[in-house]
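Lab meeting prep.
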Amino acid sequence: MATNIDSNEIQQSKKVAIIVAHPDDETLWAGGTVLSHPNWELFVVSLCRTNDTDRAPKFYEVIKLYAAKGMMGNMDDEPEQKPLAEAEVQQHVLSLLPKEDFDLIITHNPLGEYTRHIRHEEIGKAVINLWEEGNISTHALWVFAFEDGNKNYLPRPIENLTLLQPLSDNIWSKKFNIITKTYGFSLDSWEAKTTPKTEAFFEFKDAKAAKKWMNELLEHTV
């Protein structure tokens, strides 16, 4: 059973970090939620593409639209997606994320949001492990909850045991404009077609529970 996000309940979650692989992931999977909570003191980490002369400037433009702060890294993002050692991914996260106590951290699913991007998966795993090991501090963790039926359809929200943020037409339009106008994806691009009208998250308030969930999730997908 899914539960809609209670905006009143999370108004106190003011210090928020979003940790993603690429510039645009923060908007595709959580942009409407960010726009719906302008009181958040937001910091966005994109672990890849800091040397991308096209995407990097657009990322910082988007960050300004969110009235947020952010940093980009240069973690390997070549098309062949060679797996990275978890220690390397964790070090990239720690080098970019401010050493603060967050109310909420939002990040990738250890299974990713679609079939298949290894960097998304690696980052989801790394963040959960960093939290469980006490190397990052947050009162709650939200993990993107989307799937694409093994490429059978565009990514859609998982509506079982998740938090849902249905987006108003106005909020979705702003999000869509960021994807198509600020980031510049064409109207017939995968990104534009995907841009979800409902955002979904698995919520954890205990690091050990998040680690247990992840281990069971990965166990059942081997």
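Slide two material, second protein:
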Amino acid sequence: MIDWIKKNKIEAFILVLIILAALFLRLYRIDEYMTFLGDEGRDVRIVRDLITKGNLVFIGPQTSIGNMYLGPLYYYMMAPALLLSNLNPVGPAIMNALLGTLTVFLTYYLGKKWFSPAAGLIGALLFALSPVAIIYSHSSWNPNPMPFFALLSVWGIYEVWQKHSFRCLPWVGVSFAFALQMHYLGLILIPTLGIFWLLTLLNVKKDPKMVRAFWVKTIWAFVIFLLLMSPLVLFDLKHQGQNLNAFKTFFADRQTTINVNPARSDRYLPAIQSVTSELLLGRQMTYSTLTAFIIALVSIWAYLGKPKARIVDFLKSKKDPALSVVFTWIFFGILGLGVYKQHIYAHYFGFLFPAVYILVGYLISFLWKKGIIFKILSAIYLIFLIYFPLLNSPLRFEPNRQLSRTEAAVDLIIKESTGEPFNFALIAKQNYDESYRYFFENKKSKMFRGEDLVTEQLFIICEDGDTCAPEGHSQYQIAIFGIAKIDREWKLDHLRIYRLIHPKQ
């Protein structure tokens, strides 16, 4: 490494600056910027019980669409971080920040390895500055590590295809299992992995020794993949195939979920606009179509502009193999997002993050080599792609302070409960009470769920501001408390906290 730095001082200096920027943008006041709502509270409660009580986890969180359950691998990833942070939820958030920074470095490494140092540095810079990548890297949530594992799986299959490094096949099996358990949109990686697996088989079929080695490592990859996915199988065996049935319903209910005929979908342009806007333009839509058009135009030029650019070259691995992998990765990604009928959120295409940045890094470096006019255009385009992420960087805005506010609200309630048992409820349009319950339980408070014990006092946190009407609210924990009236109330930032008691007879 020292020798490389001595020979590549400028490249090393720029790379260090990019990595430091990625770390800073993801770790700066992370305890204030991180998201800590119901999903995050649920996760840390489960992982805390895994650490302190040894409660093994065989199933992950439920998906928002389709009522399917993910696998538990993310919970086991969280465990060391939560343990090292002494059960502070900021620990897993830091883990994601470090993993996100590592993904930025790997984007540089593969961009350089596949194309050029400039391509790697540009792709890593755009990844480091991306507001979406920053937001999903400084919070603990199962989809957040998806870019890391997607990159590992595609890199692995590239090594298998191009270098016949069959020892990478188990690596592909592991990384794909992790990617799939982060989010089921990882299924869209299957065509890319499958195509280059098949091309490898076609390339080595005339050599019996290589074919044997290929199949041995493929079987190992498949076995490892099944072992990592086995908790889901055990869950289904115990619950009458609940997850499998949810999958069947998801793919069968084509009116609301997916369009099985890609040629009839009208959602490709929205998918392309969403990917371009979220990943390259700091979430602004104004220039998303233009940006996507420029990327497509330069991609065609870069790939087909050379002599003898034919499909047969692709099949024989002779025509820009790295570019073939990136194009295939992005093509099936857009195809998969385009047939999905629901709203496309940014975390859905986490499996595409590295591909987009690697491609754009390559295309800008490609233009730079084409003469003075294109040098100027590529420089302008790079400045354009840096400007919007900086303009909309999350660090330019006030942090949400969800973690500290949640704990402060819990501390207030514990204090005002005067050591007596109490019930608790949350009124919120877009949240639920797991984050508060995590702190209530950690602080050994006398909080009881209404179905376990109806106490003499009910504390209600309202996240909807002054519009909240807690008396007679239909929320279950309020309804089960029975007839009650407001006894006291407090204000904490935008939170309204109420103490309700039963009226005296």
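Talking points for slide two:
The beta strands are 422-427, 447-448, 457-462, 485-492, 495-501.
The radius of gyration is 26 Å.
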